[in-house]
Amino acid sequence: MPQSMRAVEISEPGGPEVLTPVTRPVPQPGAGRIVIRVDWAGVNRPDALQRAGAYAPPPGASDLPGLEASGTVAAVGAGVAQWQVGDRVCALLPGGGYAEFAETDAAHALPVPDGMSLREAACLPETFFTVWSNVFDRGGLQAGERFLVHGGSSGIGTVAIQLAHALGVRVFATAGSAEKCAACERLGAERAINYREEDFEEILGAEGGANLILDMVGGDYIPRNVRTLAPDGRLVMIAFLGGPKAELNFAQVMAKRLTLTGSTLRPQSDLAKARIAENLLAHAWPLLTAGRVAPVMDSEFPLEEAAQAHARMETSSHIGKIVLKVAGGA
Protein backbone atom coordinates (compact mmCIF):
# COMPACT_ATOMS: atom_id res chain seq x y z
CA MET A 1 0.00 0.00 0.00
CA PRO A 2 1.14 3.57 -0.54
CA GLN A 3 2.00 5.82 2.39
CA SER A 4 -0.53 8.56 1.58
CA MET A 5 -4.02 8.76 0.08
CA ARG A 6 -6.62 11.19 -1.23
CA ALA A 7 -9.40 11.93 1.21
CA VAL A 8 -12.11 14.46 2.04
CA GLU A 9 -12.21 15.91 5.55
CA ILE A 10 -14.52 18.22 7.49
CA SER A 11 -12.51 21.43 7.88
CA GLU A 12 -14.95 22.85 10.45
CA PRO A 13 -18.60 22.31 11.36
CA GLY A 14 -20.86 23.76 8.70
CA GLY A 15 -22.57 23.27 5.36
CA PRO A 16 -21.44 21.14 2.40
CA GLU A 17 -18.73 23.69 1.53
CA VAL A 18 -16.64 22.62 4.57
CA LEU A 19 -15.90 19.24 2.92
CA THR A 20 -12.29 19.68 1.81
CA PRO A 21 -10.05 17.44 -0.34
CA VAL A 22 -6.82 16.60 1.51
CA THR A 23 -3.95 14.10 1.60
CA ARG A 24 -3.84 11.77 4.60
CA PRO A 25 -1.67 8.83 5.75
CA VAL A 26 -3.02 5.42 4.75
CA PRO A 27 -4.48 3.59 7.80
CA GLN A 28 -2.95 0.34 8.99
CA PRO A 29 -5.08 -2.60 10.17
CA GLY A 30 -5.24 -3.39 13.86
CA ALA A 31 -5.87 -6.88 15.23
CA GLY A 32 -9.12 -8.31 13.89
CA ARG A 33 -9.44 -5.51 11.33
CA ILE A 34 -8.94 -5.00 7.62
CA VAL A 35 -8.03 -2.08 5.35
CA ILE A 36 -10.09 -1.72 2.19
CA ARG A 37 -8.89 -0.08 -1.00
CA VAL A 38 -12.03 1.96 -1.60
CA ASP A 39 -13.60 2.08 -5.05
CA TRP A 40 -16.94 3.60 -4.09
CA ALA A 41 -18.28 5.20 -0.90
CA GLY A 42 -21.90 5.69 0.10
CA VAL A 43 -23.27 9.10 1.14
CA ASN A 44 -25.70 9.07 4.07
CA ARG A 45 -27.61 11.46 6.34
CA PRO A 46 -25.31 10.74 9.32
CA ASP A 47 -22.41 12.08 7.21
CA ALA A 48 -24.23 15.41 6.99
CA LEU A 49 -24.91 15.37 10.73
CA GLN A 50 -21.21 14.77 11.41
CA ARG A 51 -20.31 17.56 8.98
CA ALA A 52 -22.61 19.91 10.91
CA GLY A 53 -20.95 18.98 14.21
CA ALA A 54 -23.92 16.99 15.54
CA TYR A 55 -22.69 13.37 15.22
CA ALA A 56 -19.19 12.81 16.56
CA PRO A 57 -17.21 9.70 15.56
CA PRO A 58 -16.93 7.01 18.26
CA PRO A 59 -13.63 6.84 20.20
CA GLY A 60 -10.78 5.56 18.05
CA ALA A 61 -12.64 5.98 14.73
CA SER A 62 -11.42 8.06 11.82
CA ASP A 63 -12.56 11.67 11.86
CA LEU A 64 -13.22 11.45 8.11
CA PRO A 65 -16.87 11.08 7.10
CA GLY A 66 -18.17 7.98 5.39
CA LEU A 67 -19.91 4.99 6.99
CA GLU A 68 -19.89 2.51 4.10
CA ALA A 69 -17.69 1.62 1.17
CA SER A 70 -16.93 -1.07 -1.37
CA GLY A 71 -13.63 -2.19 -2.84
CA THR A 72 -10.98 -4.83 -2.33
CA VAL A 73 -9.17 -5.94 0.79
CA ALA A 74 -5.76 -4.25 0.79
CA ALA A 75 -4.38 -5.50 4.13
CA VAL A 76 -5.47 -7.75 7.01
CA GLY A 77 -4.63 -7.44 10.68
CA ALA A 78 -3.60 -10.14 13.13
CA GLY A 79 -6.21 -12.82 13.70
CA VAL A 80 -8.21 -12.18 10.53
CA ALA A 81 -8.97 -15.49 8.81
CA GLN A 82 -12.15 -14.81 6.82
CA TRP A 83 -10.63 -12.33 4.34
CA GLN A 84 -7.59 -12.30 2.07
CA VAL A 85 -5.93 -9.47 0.18
CA GLY A 86 -7.80 -8.97 -3.08
CA ASP A 87 -11.25 -10.09 -1.86
CA ARG A 88 -14.14 -7.92 -3.11
CA VAL A 89 -16.10 -6.59 -0.16
CA CYS A 90 -18.54 -3.98 0.98
CA ALA A 91 -18.34 -2.90 4.59
CA LEU A 92 -19.87 -0.90 7.38
CA LEU A 93 -17.30 1.62 8.61
CA PRO A 94 -16.97 3.54 11.89
CA GLY A 95 -15.85 6.47 9.70
CA GLY A 96 -13.27 7.16 7.03
CA GLY A 97 -15.13 6.14 3.88
CA TYR A 98 -14.38 9.38 2.04
CA ALA A 99 -10.86 8.22 1.24
CA GLU A 100 -8.87 5.85 -0.95
CA PHE A 101 -8.30 3.46 1.98
CA ALA A 102 -10.49 2.75 5.01
CA GLU A 103 -10.12 0.51 8.06
CA THR A 104 -12.91 -1.48 9.70
CA ASP A 105 -13.64 -4.53 11.81
CA ALA A 106 -13.24 -7.65 9.66
CA ALA A 107 -16.60 -8.92 10.90
CA HIS A 108 -18.36 -5.82 9.55
CA ALA A 109 -17.44 -6.60 5.94
CA LEU A 110 -19.59 -8.69 3.63
CA PRO A 111 -18.85 -10.24 0.24
CA VAL A 112 -20.05 -8.36 -2.82
CA PRO A 113 -23.14 -10.31 -3.96
CA ASP A 114 -22.69 -12.38 -7.10
CA GLY A 115 -23.26 -10.36 -10.23
CA MET A 116 -23.27 -7.00 -8.44
CA SER A 117 -20.92 -4.13 -9.29
CA LEU A 118 -18.80 -2.41 -6.64
CA ARG A 119 -20.74 0.78 -7.40
CA GLU A 120 -23.99 -0.91 -6.37
CA ALA A 121 -22.37 -2.72 -3.45
CA ALA A 122 -21.30 0.58 -1.88
CA CYS A 123 -25.02 1.28 -1.31
CA LEU A 124 -25.62 -1.81 0.81
CA PRO A 125 -23.97 -1.69 4.26
CA GLU A 126 -25.38 1.38 6.02
CA THR A 127 -28.92 0.92 4.75
CA PHE A 128 -29.10 -2.86 5.09
CA PHE A 129 -27.56 -2.87 8.58
CA THR A 130 -29.97 -0.12 9.64
CA VAL A 131 -33.08 -1.67 8.12
CA TRP A 132 -32.44 -5.23 9.23
CA SER A 133 -31.57 -4.34 12.81
CA ASN A 134 -34.50 -1.93 13.26
CA VAL A 135 -37.27 -3.48 11.17
CA PHE A 136 -36.69 -7.19 11.66
CA ASP A 137 -34.58 -7.56 14.82
CA ARG A 138 -35.92 -4.69 16.93
CA GLY A 139 -39.31 -4.26 15.23
CA GLY A 140 -40.05 -7.97 14.80
CA LEU A 141 -41.79 -7.52 11.44
CA GLN A 142 -43.54 -10.69 10.27
CA ALA A 143 -45.06 -11.85 6.99
CA GLY A 144 -48.64 -10.68 6.54
CA GLU A 145 -48.29 -7.62 8.76
CA ARG A 146 -48.95 -4.05 7.66
CA PHE A 147 -45.75 -2.00 7.55
CA LEU A 148 -45.59 1.79 7.08
CA VAL A 149 -42.28 3.27 5.90
CA HIS A 150 -41.90 7.03 6.15
CA GLY A 151 -39.48 8.50 3.61
CA GLY A 152 -40.05 5.58 1.28
CA SER A 153 -37.94 6.98 -1.56
CA SER A 154 -34.83 7.50 0.60
CA GLY A 155 -31.95 5.05 0.66
CA ILE A 156 -33.30 3.52 3.86
CA GLY A 157 -36.86 3.56 2.58
CA THR A 158 -36.14 1.82 -0.73
CA VAL A 159 -34.35 -1.00 1.10
CA ALA A 160 -37.07 -1.33 3.76
CA ILE A 161 -39.80 -1.56 1.11
CA GLN A 162 -37.98 -4.20 -0.91
CA LEU A 163 -36.94 -6.42 1.98
CA ALA A 164 -40.37 -6.33 3.59
CA HIS A 165 -42.15 -7.01 0.30
CA ALA A 166 -39.81 -9.91 -0.50
CA LEU A 167 -40.57 -11.44 2.90
CA GLY A 168 -44.35 -11.34 2.48
CA VAL A 169 -45.24 -8.10 4.27
CA ARG A 170 -47.97 -5.64 3.20
CA VAL A 171 -45.99 -2.44 2.67
CA PHE A 172 -47.23 1.17 2.74
CA ALA A 173 -44.96 4.18 2.28
CA THR A 174 -45.03 7.96 2.44
CA ALA A 175 -43.20 10.21 -0.01
CA GLY A 176 -43.38 13.83 -1.13
CA SER A 177 -44.20 13.69 -4.84
CA ALA A 178 -46.05 11.63 -7.42
CA GLU A 179 -42.70 10.55 -8.89
CA LYS A 180 -41.43 9.33 -5.53
CA CYS A 181 -44.71 7.57 -4.77
CA ALA A 182 -44.55 5.77 -8.12
CA ALA A 183 -40.99 4.66 -7.33
CA CYS A 184 -42.13 3.24 -3.98
CA GLU A 185 -44.90 1.26 -5.62
CA ARG A 186 -42.53 -0.13 -8.26
CA LEU A 187 -40.35 -1.41 -5.41
CA GLY A 188 -43.21 -3.28 -3.75
CA ALA A 189 -45.33 -0.86 -1.73
CA GLU A 190 -49.00 -1.70 -2.30
CA ARG A 191 -49.91 1.92 -1.52
CA ALA A 192 -47.65 4.97 -1.57
CA ILE A 193 -49.06 8.05 0.16
CA ASN A 194 -48.16 11.55 -1.00
CA TYR A 195 -47.89 13.24 2.39
CA ARG A 196 -48.37 16.67 0.81
CA GLU A 197 -51.84 15.71 -0.43
CA GLU A 198 -53.01 12.72 1.64
CA ASP A 199 -53.35 11.70 5.29
CA PHE A 200 -51.47 8.54 6.21
CA GLU A 201 -53.51 8.21 9.42
CA GLU A 202 -56.72 8.00 7.44
CA ILE A 203 -55.38 5.59 4.82
CA LEU A 204 -53.77 3.18 7.32
CA GLY A 205 -56.77 3.49 9.62
CA ALA A 206 -59.00 2.11 6.86
CA GLU A 207 -56.68 -0.91 6.70
CA GLY A 208 -56.85 -1.58 10.43
CA GLY A 209 -53.74 0.38 11.36
CA ALA A 210 -50.05 -0.34 10.95
CA ASN A 211 -48.41 -3.19 12.83
CA LEU A 212 -45.00 -1.54 12.46
CA ILE A 213 -43.93 1.97 11.50
CA LEU A 214 -40.35 2.91 10.58
CA ASP A 215 -39.95 6.65 11.05
CA MET A 216 -37.08 9.00 10.31
CA VAL A 217 -39.16 12.20 10.54
CA GLY A 218 -40.10 12.54 14.22
CA GLY A 219 -41.58 15.85 15.36
CA ASP A 220 -45.33 16.00 14.88
CA TYR A 221 -45.24 12.61 13.14
CA ILE A 222 -44.70 10.92 16.52
CA PRO A 223 -48.24 11.39 17.93
CA ARG A 224 -49.67 10.72 14.46
CA ASN A 225 -47.73 7.46 14.33
CA VAL A 226 -49.12 6.43 17.71
CA ARG A 227 -52.66 7.06 16.49
CA THR A 228 -51.93 5.11 13.29
CA LEU A 229 -50.61 1.97 14.99
CA ALA A 230 -52.82 -1.08 15.38
CA PRO A 231 -53.14 -2.80 18.79
CA ASP A 232 -49.78 -4.33 19.80
CA GLY A 233 -48.11 -2.18 17.12
CA ARG A 234 -44.49 -1.03 17.18
CA LEU A 235 -42.96 2.33 16.33
CA VAL A 236 -39.24 2.33 15.50
CA MET A 237 -37.46 5.69 15.28
CA ILE A 238 -34.16 5.98 13.40
CA ALA A 239 -33.85 9.76 12.81
CA PHE A 240 -35.53 13.07 13.57
CA LEU A 241 -35.59 15.23 10.47
CA GLY A 242 -38.60 17.03 11.96
CA GLY A 243 -37.14 17.25 15.46
CA PRO A 244 -36.80 14.83 18.42
CA LYS A 245 -39.55 16.26 20.65
CA ALA A 246 -43.32 15.85 20.63
CA GLU A 247 -46.29 15.91 22.99
CA LEU A 248 -47.65 12.39 23.33
CA ASN A 249 -50.77 10.88 24.89
CA PHE A 250 -49.44 7.80 26.67
CA ALA A 251 -52.98 6.64 27.43
CA GLN A 252 -53.11 5.64 23.75
CA VAL A 253 -49.85 3.74 24.16
CA MET A 254 -51.26 1.84 27.12
CA ALA A 255 -54.67 1.19 25.62
CA LYS A 256 -53.23 -0.29 22.43
CA ARG A 257 -50.25 -2.01 24.15
CA LEU A 258 -47.79 -0.25 21.86
CA THR A 259 -44.01 -0.51 21.79
CA LEU A 260 -42.00 2.66 21.10
CA THR A 261 -38.33 2.06 20.37
CA GLY A 262 -35.47 3.12 18.14
CA SER A 263 -31.74 3.01 17.68
CA THR A 264 -28.68 4.52 16.09
CA LEU A 265 -26.17 2.24 14.40
CA ARG A 266 -22.76 3.89 14.71
CA PRO A 267 -22.39 3.83 18.54
CA GLN A 268 -23.30 0.14 18.85
CA SER A 269 -20.61 -2.35 19.85
CA ASP A 270 -18.46 -4.17 17.32
CA LEU A 271 -20.09 -7.43 18.47
CA ALA A 272 -23.60 -6.09 17.89
CA LYS A 273 -22.68 -4.99 14.37
CA ALA A 274 -21.03 -8.34 13.67
CA ARG A 275 -24.26 -10.11 14.62
CA ILE A 276 -26.23 -7.88 12.26
CA ALA A 277 -23.75 -8.77 9.49
CA GLU A 278 -24.31 -12.48 10.18
CA ASN A 279 -28.08 -12.03 9.87
CA LEU A 280 -27.70 -10.09 6.64
CA LEU A 281 -25.48 -12.77 5.12
CA ALA A 282 -27.98 -15.46 6.08
CA HIS A 283 -31.24 -13.72 5.20
CA ALA A 284 -30.74 -10.66 2.98
CA TRP A 285 -27.75 -11.59 0.82
CA PRO A 286 -29.60 -14.52 -0.83
CA LEU A 287 -32.33 -12.06 -1.87
CA LEU A 288 -29.70 -9.78 -3.41
CA THR A 289 -28.02 -12.66 -5.24
CA ALA A 290 -31.39 -13.82 -6.57
CA GLY A 291 -32.23 -10.31 -7.79
CA ARG A 292 -35.33 -10.04 -5.59
CA VAL A 293 -33.83 -6.99 -3.86
CA ALA A 294 -31.45 -4.46 -5.42
CA PRO A 295 -29.99 -1.08 -4.46
CA VAL A 296 -31.73 1.93 -5.95
CA MET A 297 -29.16 4.35 -7.35
CA ASP A 298 -29.76 8.10 -7.56
CA SER A 299 -26.46 9.68 -8.60
CA GLU A 300 -22.69 9.57 -8.35
CA PHE A 301 -20.04 12.22 -7.76
CA PRO A 302 -16.21 12.12 -7.80
CA LEU A 303 -14.67 11.97 -4.33
CA GLU A 304 -13.44 15.56 -4.62
CA GLU A 305 -17.03 16.68 -5.26
CA ALA A 306 -18.35 15.33 -1.95
CA ALA A 307 -19.74 18.80 -1.20
CA GLN A 308 -21.98 18.61 -4.27
CA ALA A 309 -23.10 15.13 -3.20
CA HIS A 310 -24.12 16.48 0.22
CA ALA A 311 -25.93 19.39 -1.38
CA ARG A 312 -27.86 16.91 -3.55
CA MET A 313 -28.78 14.82 -0.52
CA GLU A 314 -29.96 17.82 1.47
CA THR A 315 -32.39 18.90 -1.25
CA SER A 316 -34.28 15.63 -0.50
CA SER A 317 -35.05 15.43 -4.22
CA HIS A 318 -33.07 12.22 -4.67
CA ILE A 319 -34.58 8.75 -5.03
CA GLY A 320 -32.33 6.05 -3.60
CA LYS A 321 -28.62 6.26 -2.89
CA ILE A 322 -25.90 8.77 -3.71
CA VAL A 323 -22.33 7.45 -4.04
CA LEU A 324 -18.83 8.86 -4.37
CA LYS A 325 -16.51 7.48 -7.05
CA VAL A 326 -13.16 7.05 -5.33
CA ALA A 327 -11.17 4.70 -7.58
CA GLY A 328 -13.86 3.72 -10.04
CA GLY A 329 -13.72 -0.08 -9.93
CA ALA A 330 -16.51 -1.96 -11.70
UniProtKB/TrEMBL annotation:
Ranges where the Enoyl reductase (ER) domain occurs: 14-324
Organism lineage: Bacteria, Pseudomonadati, Pseudomonadota, Alphaproteobacteria, Rhodobacterales
Signal peptide: none
Pfam family, one: ADH_N
InterPro entries noted in UniProt: ADH-like_C, ADH-like_N, ER, GroES-like_sf, NAD(P)-bd_dom_sf, Quinone_OxRdtase_PIG3
Protein name: NAD(P)H-quinone oxidoreductase
Keywords from the named record: NADP, Oxidoreductase
Record bears the keyword NADP: yes
Molecular-function GO terms, alphabetical: NADPH binding; oxidoreductase activity, acting on NAD(P)H
Superkingdom assignment: Bacteria
Region of interest: Disordered: 1-25
Protein's UniProt keywords contain Nucleotidyltransferase: no
